[in-house]
């Protein structure tokens, strides 16, 4: 079935869950059974040839257009802003491409002014379901294709390398844990962040909690004198509780967290702002408890979980031209490095 085009006419292109990718302006791309190495040594089948779409965005080549020798045209960052106006969206509207089974998809789709323009999944059934449920035109089998082909101000995924690619192509990126990638991918992402005009942040459900902020303020004000030790524990039903507890420790103590020794997948000895501490991370109902001991007493915080709404709002505000998110990777580089060190300890 033809979908409405940007100018009100029919658009003959369509992205379907069998692997075809719509080229802007009505072209399509056929997959030809190639393979791409997956992160961690796996293979990802079905890297198709580039699309034949020839649509234009203010005179530029349509994304997915075939260049000499079959190479896919690469838009500059201006493509995304010009295509946004051509699409007829209001100026407050933003477009998001969601890679894989992301927990934030439903909340983002329900946010006024946010359009889910692309989804990706290797599971054709899941891909079709998400596409129908959220009225998504661009439904692609490969995550990389969803970054390269779908016009969007924001990309949500879990892979460090694709977050770096999104920044390179002029989109903001939001990473959901557990993150996929190693020290090489993290270094490349942090290097890109230093020069990119767009930003990458991490969805950390406790980072915005006011009680965690209040704890950090109490420590900074010297309420218990100089901190001498701390214990922090996070439980979560999904995601990466180890990443959450590392970030919580850094926010509570007010300085970089560094791994001293991994004590298995759920415990670690660390320092935060130079203060020694023990971290615990495990599965269960979502909870956070931080106990900081100082020369003049003890502070305890055990806030009730109030959802990830503030973290998502931070990301959406960024897409609309707002400030850099609280959990920008440039600000939490030590947390990410400590998490990778914990994994390999």
**Continuous helix count:** 10
CA radius of gyration is: 22 Å
The beta-strand count equals: 20
Percent in strands:
25-35%
CA-CA gap between termini: 53 Å
Helix content: 25-40%
Structural class: alpha/beta
**Low-pLDDT windows of residues:** 1-91
Mean pLDDT: 79
- The quaternary state of the protein chains shown equals single chain
Shape category: elongated
Main β-sheet, spatial strand arrangement: 11-10-9-12-13-14
Order of helices and strands: EEEEEEEEHEHEHEHEHEHEHEHEEEEEHH
Let me know the largest β-sheet: 6 strands, parallel
What does this structure look like?
This protein is α/β, with parallel strands linked by helices. Helix content is 30%, strand content 28%. α5 packs parallel to α6 and α8 crosses α10. The relative contact order is 0.11. The N terminus is likely disordered.
List keywords for this structure.
elongated, 20 strands, six-stranded mixed beta sheet, alpha/beta, 30% helix
List the helices and strands and how they pair.
Blueprint: E1 3-4, E2 10-11, E3 21-22, E4 28-29, E5 35-37, E6 43-45, E7 56-57, E8 60-61, H1 77-86, E9 94-99, H2 105-109, E10 114-120, H3 124-134, E11 138-140, H4 143-149, E12 154-159, H5 160-168, E13 172-180, H6 183-195, E14 200-203, H7 210-220, E15 227-236, H8 241-253, E16 257-262, E17 267-272, E18 275-283, E19 287-294, E20 297-301, H9 309-319, H10 333-344
Parallel strand pairs: 9-10, 9-12, 10-11, 12-13, 13-14, 15-18
Antiparallel strand pairs: 1-2, 3-4, 5-6, 7-8, 15-19, 16-17, 17-18, 19-20
